[in-house]
């Protein structure tokens, strides 16, 4: 149970890792190390629980450490790249923004997904230098685009908590010449369980610069509609897990309708993500979801291809001229 200590509410939690002698280890040191690995697993699965050591955990721990070592060198070695995925107007299909998505081109393992290394980067603090590189690269890239479409950048909770975040962002905006009104920061609701006052203050400071805050992956965990009201968000992304269920599952459809209705009432933009089929797109249009993202509209692309695409949009000829006029773009 939570209890009060001076003016703070304190909650004590317990996580337990179990390793057994002699089946898990032959020496005291190894036994402790394996118990620690199991403890790590317990914490990773949400705390206040216990996990037993399994032999494959040792291998996983080893892989993780190897990956972590490589990671430290990877930024310096230029092994990270950004891809850009279009976010489109649901009616015209034209891009209104691109989301920057990071990739790690590992020399021996090939391309590693951010789903694999962002959690490690978060836990080790390496997300700070990587996140700075992502911000610098994405801002500089978007500043070169032939048409001032928006750029969406993902911010992880550790980056968000960093004291110098605001100063750093101002500095990079000034250096690259990117207009803050072209910038979206995407955060997930995990961030909102942290120190609420600090989070709101940082979000306000970013909004104050003219940057738009977007709630990413909405609908995955708690999906509290209060988040849309209590925090200064201007847009919400409906998680792609809903898209899969949209055409078959009446509950999923009802929830998407409810999110759209609340967002509309609060004056928020809505982006449906993970759109892979014409049916999903048609239904989202029918429900008047204004923006869409997904493989149907476009895969994440390398910088040069993105630049070329935007160039073609900005220098329209023939039929494209009409499309150019329709975009809900922002002023530069
Ligand atoms: P996210 O922010 O939800 O990004 C969308 C993910 O969905 C991307 O995966 C994208 O490639 C994928 N996706 C896009 N359209 C479709 C579709 O139609 N169907 C399916 N099945 N998937 C689609 P990706 O690039 O592997 O990124 C995974 C996650 O890693 C991201 O989820 C985000 O949470 C994190 N991430 C990626 N780049 C960054 C970054 O630069 N910084 C931080 N902090 N996190 C990042
Ligand atoms: Ca995102
Ligand atoms: Ca998302």
Structure commentary:
The protein has helices spanning 28-44, 55-74, 114-124, 127-144, 157-161, 165-176, 196-208, 227-230, 240-246, 250-266, 278-286, 303-314, 320-326, and strands at residues 3-5, 8-10, 16-18, 50-52, 80-89, 95-106, 110-112, 150-154, 183-188, 212-218, 235-238, 269-273, 291-293. With 332 residues, it is α/β, with parallel strands linked by helices. The chain has an eight-stranded mixed β-barrel with strand order 5-6-8-9-10-11-12-13, surrounded by four helices. Helix 9 (240-246) packs across helix 10. The protein is globular. The termini are far apart. Bound molecules: ligand C2E and calcium ion (CA) (2 copies). Residues 85, 100-102, 113-115, 118, 134, 154, 156, 186, 216-217, 240, 274-276, 294-295, 300 line the site of ligand C2E.
Strand content: 15-25%
Note the gap between the termini: 52 Å
Oligomer: single chain
Low-pLDDT residue intervals, each spanning 5 or more residues = 321-332
Please give the count of helices.
13
Q: What's the helix and strand layout?
A:
Elements: E1 3-5, E2 8-10, E3 16-18, H1 28-44, E4 50-52, H2 55-74, E5 80-89, E6 95-106, E7 110-112, H3 114-124, H4 127-144, E8 150-154, H5 157-161, H6 165-176, E9 183-188, H7 196-208, E10 212-218, H8 227-230, E11 235-238, H9 240-246, H10 250-266, E12 269-273, H11 278-286, E13 291-293, H12 303-314, H13 320-326
Helix pairs in contact: 2-3, 4-6, 9-10
The structure holds ligand C2E and calcium ion (CA) (2 copies).
């Amino acid at each position: 149970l939570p209890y009060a200590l001076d003016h703070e509410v304190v909650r004590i939690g317990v996580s337990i890792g179990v390793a057994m002698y002699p089946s898990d280890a032959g020496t005291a040191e190894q036994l402790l190390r394996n118990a620690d690995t199991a403890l790590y697993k317990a914490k990773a699965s949400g705390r206040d629980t216990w996990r037993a050591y399994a032999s494959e955990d040792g291998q996983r721990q080893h892989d993780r450490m190897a990956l972590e070592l490589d990671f430290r060198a990877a930024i310096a070695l230029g092994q990270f790249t950004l891809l850009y995925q279009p976010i489109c107007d649901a009616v015209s299909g034209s891009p209104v923004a691109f989301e920057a998505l990071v990739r790690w081109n590992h020399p021996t393992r090939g391309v590693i997904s951010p789903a694999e290394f962002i959690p490690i980067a978060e836990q080790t603090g390496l997300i700070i230098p990587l996140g700075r590189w992502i911000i610098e690269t994405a801002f500089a890239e978007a500043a070169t685009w032939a048409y001032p479409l928006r750029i969406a950048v993902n911010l992880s909770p550790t980056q968000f908590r960093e004291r110098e975040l605001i100063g750093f962002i101002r500095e990079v905006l000034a250096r690259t010449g990117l207009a803050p009104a072209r910038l979206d920061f995407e955060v997930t609701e995990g961030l909102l369980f942290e120190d609420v006052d600090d989070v709101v203050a940082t979000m306000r400071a970013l909004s104050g610069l003219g940057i738009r805050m977007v709630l990413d992956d909405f609908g995955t965990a708690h999906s509290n509609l209060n988040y849309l009201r209590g925090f200064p968000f201007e847009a919400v992304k409906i998680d792609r897990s809903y898209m899969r269920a949209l055409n078959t599952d009446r509950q999923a459809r009802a929830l998407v309708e409810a999110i759209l209705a609340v967002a509309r009432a609060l004056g928020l933009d809505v982006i449906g993500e993970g759109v892979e089929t014409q049916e999903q797109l048609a239904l989202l249009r029918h429900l008047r979801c204004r923006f869409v993202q997904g493989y149907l509209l476009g895969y994440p692309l390398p910088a040069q291809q993105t630049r070329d695409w935007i160039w073609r949009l900005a220098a329209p000829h023939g039929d494209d001229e009409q499309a150019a006029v329709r975009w809900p773009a922002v002023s530069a």
